[in-house]
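Posting this for the archive.
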Amino acid sequence: MQGGLFPRKRIIVDSKQSLVTGFLERAPRPVLNSYAVLFSFSTYFCMYAFRKPFVAGTYEGFTFLDTQIELKTALVISQIAGYGLAKFLGIKFCSEMTRQRRAAVLCLLIVAAELSLMLFAVVPQSLKLAAIFLNGLPLGMVWGLVVWYLEGRRTSELLLAGLSCSFIVSSGVVKDVGRSLLAGDSFRLYFLVIPNPFAQVPEFWMPCVTGLLFLLPFLLSVWMLDKLPEPTLEDREERSARDPMGAAQRTDFLRRFLPGMLLLLVTYFFVTAFRDFRDNYMVEVFDQLDYPYELNKDIITRSEMQVAFGVILSLGLLYRFRDNRHGLIGVFSVMIIGLAMLGGSTLLLQQGVLSGFWWMTLVGLGSYLAYVPFSSVLFDRLLATTRTVGTAVFAIYVADTIGYVGSIAVQVFRDVVTSDTSRLDFMCQFSYFMSVFGTVAMVLACIYFVGKTKAAPPAEPCAADGS
């Protein structure tokens, strides 16, 4: 029987498969999907405990080398520079990564990130930028290695939607955990209250301590994720083969889709900048919206839980599009709606219709609806509709390389050119710009790529050996 609940023959990469992998090979598809979402989510959720806790601090009174640039801005930029460089290196590194090495490399990357947070705590202030730069380098590789486990499946939209929600939720959680460590409070995470084993942690030690809390869960999650079977033959036939891409294949991909990729990359330049600005300065913006920490200890977690629910619902619905061309149009539609939400919600805030909490939640939802597809379902569908053999990880890392340049540029622009503007006012102005420019650019990109799918050749039969 060919029904959706029954397993299909899967491609086995290693004959020495584990008992867990063998069980998942034979399990009904909902079981396999739930397993994949659970452990990819937990892997990337824990990764954020090594990336984002330092932004829970404000580092007030410190500036970068006696310039107008605040120390926190300099730290954010330094980490993004390392993270962005990793994305550039990941175009080759992650695109060529073999299945057998993924888990070990993931563990080594996260250990390196934790050691850099320890350096951040102990080195003099003049070297803290270098330490946080080194922290960003290994972390920039993690996303691509996790996506490798999920892409190229008929249920990739569901799996990648679940994975994408991990960094939305965890970004809020680790900030609230970091603020609790600074204050010596219990951890208040939505409806959970967890005892805090630490007294007040100094601001520069807080990121390292946060990482230590999540190290063991990360290692366990990677071990479980690595048991996931490879895509089935039917997956490969419907979504095209997902194989490592050499330099020639990567160059051919960019040449083939250059006009559309330019539209996507310019848009992503600003989408990433907006998403990062909101994410890195939520503490300050909530304060400016009159939500002090003492009265709103879990407000970031509550906001991001709402955002995550909206994102996973929106992207999960894309799974209903079995036709890849319609699915690609659906992805672009979600992104355009998200961009339109930025300007609309900001207008409602300024007219007094929305509260500050719901404005932050809605601009978060809008920015993530535009941002998340770039790092998940957009390129997966694009490869499937154009019948391009390769990996979505390559296109994701090209986009991320450009996106984090945008993030750095916008933060420097705010501190140097518009330093007299509060972060709240800057974010409102940025919302209007993104709503207009982003919507126009994404409509044009949608028209271009949908036109390309009409001319896509039929899929070629997949080899049974998975090569």
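The radius of gyration is 22 Å. Confidence is low (pLDDT under 50) at residues 1-15, 455-467.
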